Protein 1
Amino acid sequence: MRILLTLLLVYIANPAVAQQENDLGTEAQRAEGKEVYDIKCAHCHGYEGDASAVATPYLRPTPRDFTSGNYKFRSTASGELPTTEDIKRSIRLGMPYTSMPAWEGILSETEITNLAYYLKTFESAFDGPYGNPTVVEIPRAPSYSADPDHLARGREVFEANQCADCHGENGRGNGESAPELVDDWGYPIRAADMTKRWTFRASATREDIYRTFMTGLNGTPMPSYEQTIDEEDRWALVDYVWSLSRDTPDYGTTVTVQGRSGELVLGDSLFEAAPETYFPIVGQIIEPGRAFYPGVNGISVKAVYNESEIAIQLQWHDMTAETEGMNNPGIEVPMFDPAQPDTLMDGWSDAVAALLPSRTPEGLERPYFMFGDSRFPMSIWYTDLATDSAAVLTGQGSGRIADNGIALERSASYEDGVWTVQFKGPRSRGELTMSEATFVPISFTVWDGFNGERGNKRGISAWYHLYLQPMETQSAVLPMAKWFLIVLGAELLIVALVNLRARRRKTA
Amino acid sequence: MNLFMLLAIAAAMVLIQFVVTRWVKLNRLAWMGIWWAALWAAFSYGINPPLPNSIIVLFMAIITIALVAYLSADNEELKQAKESIVRFMVTRQYRVALLIVMLVIPGAVAAWIFASMNEAPQPPSSGRTIHPPPPSSITFQGTSINLTTANNPIRELQHTDEAAFAEHVANGRRIYFENCFYCHGDNMEGAGMFAHGYDPLPANFNDATTIAMLQESYLFWRIAKGAPGLPSESTPWSSAMPAWEDFLTEEEIWDVIIFLYEFTGFEPRAQGMPH
């Protein structure tokens, strides 16, 4: 309705729009588009294009309802329909970190064009006077400038336009109104985390960011700022947003754990100089409690050790801190909670765990990564962030988690969208010893209470490693010198002998 | 296979054979050195995924022995080779070259020690068996299924009752898009939205080395028993493949198997053929 109204206004203001031909393709193109659509797209977007399909209840964001005419990615003014080229681009590139795949390379350019024409048939407005939308010109991006004044100007524009209300003071998606945001279909939607621009839906070049706040994302609370941000300020804002994130997630596989002399006192300064590794977190969809849309998508890890102890720091972005209620890895959860508009749940607190084997592994063997099994139990370094304690639990599989009363030192804080949890425990407990210069398997689990995550409904990671860097690394100089001299000596001996013999033969 | 690298090596060999020899006469020993270097380059850089260092060292040792044996099989050649080495060591004219060689060899040894001591330590790598032999029978929801004789009961319909078959395909499609595509991907290429968080990666069904070379009964086993059903050489503890016996019925599993083949256009390997 809102769309129609805006379109009507545009129409009244600019009757010339109606005179141009709408780009709807031919009958044959649309028919061919339908053929591909029914095989490749209908199970998510629905045979009628209305997003009522088998996969829909398990997906958030929900697949686009094409009958609404709302498209996030557009080169056109706020509230207007997209161009054919816009739709084709969305199909080609997909939407990262959602279930919408990139079809480039899988479907041909012709098939993608036909699909775009077919999608247009779901919304009659494409066939009417509004089917010819006004394109917002995106100028070519000047090269990126990290000039402090320029970025400070960008920050001012960011503040003046209240981007922080939704995106958070430092762009971590944790703004004050972020928890209440819903899309036009009533489903909860999260403001983008600007410190992870690889998760942006509509690509993340600087032109894309420019276009996003110029055109807004239809169907979402993300508005258009075409009218409010002056031309000369736009690139400053783009560059400020750009400066908040690295280019790629740089997912790692090993945390390098550095040795420290003296006591490990939990706190920020302990981890200051330690190298950080970032790991992906994905939904647990292997056992009941399937988490199809986990609230957390990555975790940063640092660790240090001394003669007897190891300290591990886990950091992740979370829109809100749930420090009320309770959580526990053993809570029973149904197969899955359907993605209803009202799934925001009270009562579950945030929680986190670092998962370790219960004994020093031999070779490749380790506990089953879903909380272990009876063959090889898991040590679960767990803390419920509604409490101020932590414990080492023993896992022999989901639902078989025992608390043997082993306490663990921990510190936890939440600041501006970031949870920081630090654990400290002995390097050697029971049958597990974390020795210097060895790889210790480790895996991570995060519960976002806001998202109803509890028990086995959680964000998980694969097995990765901690590597305890030896406190004293052996210098290579001595062995190098030794072997250089040995080999050289052997050569000299051979050459001398050969020469001697040759001379003897000559004289003989 | 890194074809580009292999072609480059072959081209270099051809160049030496037909062009360089016009100006420089290469004796037997030089040729053997060149062959040795070419094979080493091919093993080290021409193969994808790269061979482990220990394997390359083993291959090169075998090749060295073979070349020495080749050389010493002919007395005349052995003598020639020996003489050319001796000449290099005693002739005044080669003094500088000899000195360089004598410094380069221990230098290379030292460099190798430096590199191996400064190498970033590697985590134990998983030499995982992707397709272990299946058990001969499994217990599925209380009944025993013999995997060597089990056939997909839906297959028959393909030729006898097309409408019923299409219904099973549609049901398989529903099951796949309710349960599997988060990992195995929309297009069955193993790149679903959660795939980047799992190790090993979900299987790519478009690849000719997965379902295209497996029997339907093998797939039944893998789908019903998932990762926990794998033997230890297949690292069951790290695979994310769920055990579907707890969530799907026998017919549903056969349906989704049919759908995997229909969607990718592959034919299952016939029953009775060895794996």
Note: The first helix of chain A runs from residue 2 to 13.
Protein 2
Amino acid sequence: MTIHTGRDIHAADVTPEDASIERTSIYVYEAPLRVWHWVTAVTITVLVVTGFFIGTPLPSVPGEASDSALMGTIRFIHFTAGYVLAIAWLLRIYWAVVGNHHSRQLFKLPFWRRDYWGGVLWEASWYAFMRTEPKKYVGHNPLAQFVMFTVFTLGMFFMIITGFALYAEGTGLDSWQYWLFGWVFDIFPNSQSVHTWHHLGMWAFVIYTILHVYAAVREDIMSRQSMISTMISGERMFKDNRDD
Amino acid sequence: MSSRTETFYEVMRRQGLSRRSFLKFCGLTSVALGLGPAWAPRIAEALETKPRIPVIWLHGLECTCCTESFIRSAHPLVKDVVLSMISLDYDDTIMAAAGHQAEAILEEVRETHKGEYILAVEGNPPLKDGGVYCLPGGRPFVDKLTEMAADARAVIAWGSCASWGCVQAAKPNPTQATPVHQVVTDKPVIKVPGCPPIAEVMTGVLTYMLTFERLPQLDRHGRPKMFYAQRIHDKCYRRPHFDAGQYVESWDDEGARKGYCLYKMGCKGPTTYNACSTVGWNEGVSFPIQSGHGCIGCSEDAFWDKGPFYERLTSLEPLAAEGTADTVGATLAALAGGAVAAHAGVSIVKTAADKRDRRNARAAAQAEADRAARARPPADGSDRTDT
Ligand code: HEM
Ligand code: SF4
Ligand code: SF4
């Protein structure tokens, strides 16, 4: 543990009390993963907004029907964003295979590991204000991993599958979309139910986003490592190098 | 029964249909089935040469709207022809025979046409309490159905009752009304849903099966693709208003007068597979949307439970009284937002308190050290510079 005093910084206004700690950082998120993260953030936002207006359309447009295509455009944007989301998700899955081990964390839930659940509880106690200092993590903390896997990862599969099943109703029984996703209608023979579930899924993503952004900002400030900048540079920086 | 060797054509002639009417029927039918006029001679030939296949028409728990629709088939000719194909054998509501005599026909057809006849079922069997909630001829309908299905070649499930369960199967389904395909599992079941199904769709499906002696192409739910492959929404003449974003916002508003899309008034056309927007009702005169009312999704599974009929989003009762996905979702999102704000507030206060505690602890330690230092001056008399 090397502790440098402020003198080693050579800044003009430095005082002897400005003790600094050597910062260490680890490269966690590789470039394709970061690009995927921000592409997904944007497309989900677009999908939530357009999806909401598909379910509850805007006030009627006056004039001739041939002069406007408001709903048509909203739906087109929704479907395009849906394709971007789905293709990016496929690439993300590919990256989980070829990327570093952090890229796989999103797809794993160590359900049978006792120490994992211990970690979840510990992290929950930090969020319940029962700890004065958090632990350090290179990847996601166990609680974050739990929420990401159960809500985000499963939610992505759910939204993409139900979304493409609905899309297949438009492209028809002979389309590849129907061939791939038509089985959804074996579970829900009345597609109105698929609409309802897809719609509820939107709210799951809205709530996930609220929690995700809050947790990221809070951890960025209060934890012992960087968060937001990590998803930009890929580097996880630690604010101290004390042991846990 | 002598009909075993008769052809369809012979039966029709015996019923008093002219040759001319017969050929007209063949032409109409081939067009209705989407085969084009060129197929008319083939239909005629089939009907002239093939021995008539008997159709048994059973009625379970139902309201007879399918029969009502069927006998109002657009062209009276079609109705006459198809009725002469089927009515001779057995149909509770429209056959001449009654009582034991009628029930005897079932047995006879079952034996003489084993594995050949088509079993058309209107309504469904309620299974609760041994099926006592539907006792045609004094026996549970479910028994009659399974017995007759055992020797049938194929089963047609007429209407939403037989296909999905319909109103008697709506929550809480007190009699455990069960769609036909869940009771008859070893025979092909062709669903012709609708409440009722369109007459031309019914006669079309039946004629196809009788003349070509094969099942029409079915979708994954067992519905004939030629009538059920597309949604009302896909062929709705109001669709341009949907795409433009022009909706009826309330009954009798300007949009309603202009014939705007009924999506916001709860039209279920986007989730309903049926032929209304192409074939139409009452000899093609109109269909619900054309007369200004949204589709209620009558040919879909559990459409009674996917309402309200006049709301776009399905109510999630009993999860949320009068609530939809939006009510539930927005409530949870607001709760999450509130929880986050509260958590952030506590985090700030707690961090400040922790900081103060640490500062106080440091100050106390410092004061303690100072006191100790004053009490015992350093031996070498010099000040310590680093800490
Ligand atoms: C996080 C991702 C997504 C969100 C939040 C979302 C949201 C929504 C919402 C709220 C609706 C309205 C449902 C209703 O009440 O009828 C909707 C409809 C729909 N979505 Fe998505 N969606 C997502 C992903 C997708 C994907 C990946 C596709 C695939 C292309 C897709 C295709 C559709 C289709 C086809 C409809 C029905 C449109 C219509 O009825 O006109 N969605 N979406
Ligand atoms: S009226 Fe109904 S079926 Fe027709 S376009 Fe509007 S939503 Fe679709
Ligand atoms: S428009 Fe809809 S509710 Fe009306 S008859 Fe057709 S399928 Fe049934």
Note: Residues 60 and 66 of chain A are 14 Å apart (CA to CA).
Protein 3
Amino acid sequence: MKAEEMLNLAEKARQDLDHFQHHIHVCTESGCQSSQSQAVLASLTAEVNRRGWQDRVWVKGVGCMGLCCEGPLVKCDDRLYQRVRPQDAADLVASLEAEPVERLHCDTEQPFFTRQKLVVRENAGKIDPESLLDCLAHGAYQGLLRVLTEMTPAAVIQEITASGLRGRGGAGFPTGLKWSTVAKAGGAAKYVICNGDEGDPGAFMDRSVMEGDPHRVLEGMAIAAYAVGADHGVIYVRAEYPLAVKRLNKAINQARRHELLGLNIFGTHFQFNVELRLGAGAFVCGEETALIASVEGRRGLPRPRPPYPANEGLYGAPTLINNVETFANVPAIIQRGAAWFAGIGTAKSKGTKVFALTGRVRNTGLIEVPMGMSLREIIYDLAGGIPEGKAFKAVQTGGPSGGCIPAEHLDIPVDYESLTRLGSIMGSGGMIVMDETSNMVDVARFFMEFCMTESCGKCVPCRVGTWQLHGILDRISRGQGKSGDLNQLQELCAMVKQTSLCGLGQSAPNPVLSTLRYFEKEYRALLEKAPAAGAAPANSAKTVALEVAP
Amino acid sequence: MKAVSATAASLTLNIDGQDLSCRAGETILEVARENGIAIPTLCWLEGLSLWGGCRLCLVEIAGSPKLHAACATVCTEGLHVTTNSPRLTHYRRMIVEMLLSERNHVCSVCVSNGHCELQSLAQKLGVDHVSLPYRFPKLTVDNSHDLFRMDHNRCILCTRCVRVCAEVEGAHTKDVKGRGILAAIIQDLDQPWGDSKTCTNCGKCVNICPTGALTHRGTAVGEMVKKQEFLPYLTLMRGCGK
Amino acid sequence: MSTTPAKPKLATVWLDGCSGCHMSLLDLDERLLILAEKVEVVYSPAVDPKEFPEGVDITLIEGAVSSEEDRHKAQLIRARSRLVVSLGDCAVTANVPGMRNYFEKDELFQRAYVENADAPAAGEARRARLPVLGVPALCPRATPVHEVIPVDLFVPGCPPSAEAIWLVLTELLAGRMPQVAELTRFGA
Ligand SMILES: Cc1cc2nc3c(=O)[nH]c(=O)nc-3n(C[C@H](O)[C@H](O)[C@H](O)COP(=O)(O)O)c2cc1C
Ligand code: SF4
Ligand code: SF4
Ligand code: SF4
Ligand code: FES
């Protein structure tokens, strides 16, 4: 569609919004849906209809409002309600023009809400992700419009570079640099891939972005495609995210129908199409070369790099691959400028980061905070601290590739470099909090088991090394460790880290190394429980000679 | 394999203290081999696509904290490569130990005893025992093919067989199923080899398998049966003499 | 008065193996005589003593650790020997004895003592039965010696050749750690 058409549609959609006196927003993302938010939405709609208020009250499903543990969350104008059940509909609708419903009250003045800084999730809880018009009313595709009509590809890359945006998929690679590498690579066909595989246990940031604001992802990809000279995009999502798949599909179809994807977008010569590819739920398929193999229809196995995808990616063509959250930052940077973005965060880590808070904290759910906020602030203020009066023990960041950070380091700012220095990584944003009841050897064993079963098996150090490491951790945690075990753990960890082919193996030892670094006492305590090596077994050969009778 | 044209620009590099020159596009492994510098390999095989899974060919490059697979690293001007160091030997030994611990390698009763790349590599690297616990998995032997045999106990998952079958023979009978430690070589859709409709009986896989995993049938001690009925006239002759 | 300095004490032990490594030792042939001059063989299948003595200098172990008796012996040997050598693939890798490890112990007994038992002759009671008395308990797995006790030197081979064994002994007696890789390997 032409630029004016879109602006007109957006304007009309905004007027439609203003036409309603009241707005009821029900979270319909996976978290709240699992506590029946669809039924809540239905009964609220029915109640509004019963009162004949259809023209005054707009009820809609929206993306995640963050406090997943208190779901289903419902927002009635400015009031937020938690743990809403379908039978609360009558009271809630009545309250629109009366006193708030105290029993369902959710305090939006608590730090969980006030200390967040929303960029990627700025529309979450505001827009109906299934309605293109609603998205347009909230500014969707205006960044793309600006790029296509006012900026050269080089200027776009310049803007992204100046913003200091770094990849949110784990390693924190400078996004502008990646884009300019792809832009410089020769070749007629180029591709843009959005990595929505999100395989880390405990992570659901990308899911939420894809479910809650799918057009934002498409817009970010389109801007990137324009910048690097690609005309085809692929979103790789795990099949375990059916709602994200559904909403992305819907968004792609809407965008195509309204010519926001396809040929001559906004009447320019720019063309871009996006297709969705489903992964079958292998963690390793989040690794970029394995992901590309999977998209090509082959086994999802990593291959040695270089060549990097930027030069030889999908079907051998230069390919830009970025994470969902990375793309979701792009429209905001284009619209508000690199300087604004670079003003958020720390010297080397710009912008915000979405974290999935899980484990032993009061508030579990999604938060978006400026880079550089301290772990203490996140865990004690936003997440509300540890429940049941228990003491904090460690926080695990970066999933199976990350590490555990103990209490003495809670005051470090959360940015790429600080976390790496502590032996963990930013990763994609999983944050699992553990209290005094957790055993850290168990934690290491759990993550190693994950890596062992998710290893693709291509290279020896990861395939066999993770199995060996898991064996040692397992026997230590069962109280059957041997005296040389800690040395062997260290030795194997170093070897697997340095010799594995891809990031999975190279980072699989991190949870072990970081727990060894901070919680060696717990390993030693378990080892002391083990029967002393060298002692004669209870039934020595001279005395016992029995096997089962026939 | 990269096609390297004769006119390609040449580069200079240094491997283990020797100043060498090579053509652009050549890997460290290729250049080392051309110059008689031995780098151990198991998954790499000239003429097959790159795999990079065994990690035995890892080398050190000056200025890089990482180790680099020689088979997968294309030379660049001025590279300074070390193919042997205490650290590299230590890791190579561990890799061999891992392979020996992963499945059941009982060299003394293996048909490939004395003709096995893994076995001789262990000897060359001085692996005189395996310090890791053995896994002792229960694995099968596929005896269904008329000519060949697949013994999963001896397979090191180098995928040479998979690649030669797909890339040279063009049959793509073999592939890998499963993940991690459970990965295994299969025929077609995980059918017995003898039932495969795509296997052309060419024997390429058998001949390039580095271990005793793929072998010709009839080569095991227990199969060394003499067929005396092969010479029926002997009895006839004996009959005549009576 | 002069006393001849005490000769180093050598022991050789046969755990779960086929005795092939000991045969290879005997293959030293006339060099056995030289050996006899240099060492005192204090314990071995080839000599009389029944109790593993204290203060042994070098012990060669043939065979994997398969039963509780093996395990007990290995520990005793370690406690009483200065140098322990794993001799041959069974001691080093568990080798053929380890091939039972792919099966559960119960499966193994069923196969060995029940399914493979001779069919009873006419009128005879069933022969199949599990051994109950006088046999040491079998470990769940046969393991290399070094999984049970620390080992000082590994000599792979099935069996290691007499040359390899000679090198090991002469070097150890000369106070050096032998480099055996040239002379033997797994399965050699
Ligand atoms: C084992 C493994 C799993 C990965 N999983 C993901 C993932 O689920 N999502 C993701 O965006 N990146 C993942 N990555 C990182 C990607 O390889 C790639 O670096 C990233 O998508 C690049 O995007 P970015 O520059 O925007 O961070 C994974 C890497 C490894 C080694
Ligand atoms: S490190 Fe692990 S996941 Fe990566 S290639 Fe090797 S086996 Fe596969
Ligand atoms: S395949 Fe090689 S290493 Fe394995 S048992 Fe056979 S000879 Fe030994
Ligand atoms: S069967 Fe042989 S060639 Fe094939 S993967 Fe196994 S070891 Fe390699
Ligand atoms: S030969 Fe290079 S990784 Fe196997």
Note: Residues 9-100+138-173 of chain C form a domain with the Rossmann fold fold (CATH 3.40.50.700).
